[in-house]
């Protein structure tokens, strides 16, 4: 008697549908390798990323007063899609920074920087599955989570040596993404409006844009080339305008993307300054970047 019952129970268990599981490519219908923040949204998508950046900058009103800054930064990011049209994201940076003056005086600091939170809404897609065209709106803010760094005598380090602004800095933007066979394209513009922070300093309002094209001849790797720009207004302290560092700068940004296994993307690239119209004595070094992205 128990044998037919056992067979019936086994067959019932095998025929009962379980929860579906699919890779990110299957769920969104597009095999394009994407960096963090440019992925196609679908409900339930959870994406984690770690991005390493190394960069340097020498700036001041003149060469004789210029200050040299070097930074190594690791951003830990998470993005979740609770609804098919809404992506929520957060990024926490861990930074180490060195500031050196012409007199060779030096300040060093490390720790967590300012947390960035954002929401991206997809307001247009030409079709629900495997869309060729996406239009998105972005809004968010950088929050003053970085602690105030101090020297051995307990005095706060200079503003250049601090890892955060001490202010709430909102931003908003829009982006278009297109997909066509082996090619994909990105056009985005984001405006930043810093508020007043440490020592009554307020950074200049800025507009940052990206124009990128990506060619993916194989499923596992792709080549990406972008033009990144930043247009920034004057900063000020206590209402006194400080034009140094304001103006326009453009970068040429080549990247290689590689997927060693399903749902994993490695990205290696550089941001090379090719057009510098910043006020004062400003020398921007190339920005080296490596990223690891994983879809859960």
Automatic annotation (TrEMBL):
Keywords: Signal. The keyword Signal applies. Residues 1-22 form the signal peptide. It comes from the Bacteria. This is Conserved uncharacterized protein. It comes from Stigmatella aurantiaca (strain DW4/3-1).
């Amino acid at each position: 008697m128990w044998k037919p019952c056992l067979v019936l129970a086994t067959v019932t268990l095998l025929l009962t549908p379980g929860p579906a599981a699919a890779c990110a490519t299957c769920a969104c219908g597009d095999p394009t390798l994407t960096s963090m923040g440019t992925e196609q949204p679908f409900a339930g998508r959870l994406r984690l990323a770690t991005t390493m950046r190394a960069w340097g900058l020498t700036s001041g009103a003149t060469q004789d007063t210029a200050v040299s800054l070097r930074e190594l930064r690791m951003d830990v990011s998470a993005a979740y899609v609770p609804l098919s049209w809404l992506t929520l994201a957060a990024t926490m940076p861990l930074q180490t920074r060195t500031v050196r003056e012409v007199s060779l005086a030096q300040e060093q600091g490390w720790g967590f920087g300012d947390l960035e939170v954002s929401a991206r809404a997809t307001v247009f897609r030409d079709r629900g599955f495997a869309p060729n065209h996406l239009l998105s709106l972005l809004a968010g803010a950088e929050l003053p989570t970085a602690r105030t760094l101090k020297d051995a005598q307990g005095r706060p380090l200079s503003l250049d040596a601090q890892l955060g602004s001490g202010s709430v800095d909102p931003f908003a933007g829009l982006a278009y993404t297109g997909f066509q066979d082996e090619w994909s394209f990105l056009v985005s513009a984001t405006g930043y409006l810093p508020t007043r922070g440490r020592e009554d300093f307020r950074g200049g309002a800025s507009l940052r844009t990206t124009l990128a094209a990506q060619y993916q001849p194989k499923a596992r790797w792709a080549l990406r080339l972008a033009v990144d720009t930043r247009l920034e207004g004057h900063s000020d302290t206590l209402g006194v305008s400080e034009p140094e560092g304001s103006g326009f700068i453009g970068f040429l940004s080549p990247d290689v993307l590689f997927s060693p296994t399903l749902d994993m993307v490695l990205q290696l690239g550089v941001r090379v300054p090719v057009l510098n119209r910043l006020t004062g004595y400003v020398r921007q070094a190339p920005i080296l970047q490596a990223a690891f992205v994983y879809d859960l």
